[in-house]
Amino acid sequence: MKIRSDILRTYQSIHTWTGITTGLVLFIAFFAGSLTMFKPQIEQWATPPSQQLAPISSTQRDNLINQAISQYDKAADGFIVNFDGQSSPLTWYEKGGGRGFRLDDSLRHATLDDNGVIVTHISSTNELGQLIDQLHRTAGIIGKLGHEDIGVLVLGIAAGLYFLALISGVIVLLPTLVKNLFALRSHKGASRFWLDSHNLVGVLSLPFHLIIAWTAMVFAFHDPFYGGLSLVYGDKPLFEPRERGLIEYSVEELPSIETYIEQVSKLADGYQIRNMEFSKLSSTSPSLAVELVAVGQMMRGGYSDFIYLQPYTLKVNYSTINQPEDGIYGPVVNSLFALHFGNYAGGLGRWIYFSLGLLGAFLFYSGNLLWLEKRRQKQALQTRSSRVMSSLTIGVCLGSILGVVGAMLATKWLYLISEQINSYYLSGYYVLFFVAIAYSFARGAALAAIHLLKLLSLGCLLIPVSSLLTLIMPGLMPWTPADFNAGLIESMALLFSLLFYLAAKKAQHRAYYGERNSIWALEPHASKQPLKCQEHSSQQLGKLS
Question: Rounded to two decimals, what is the model's pTM?
Answer without folding.
Answer: 0.88
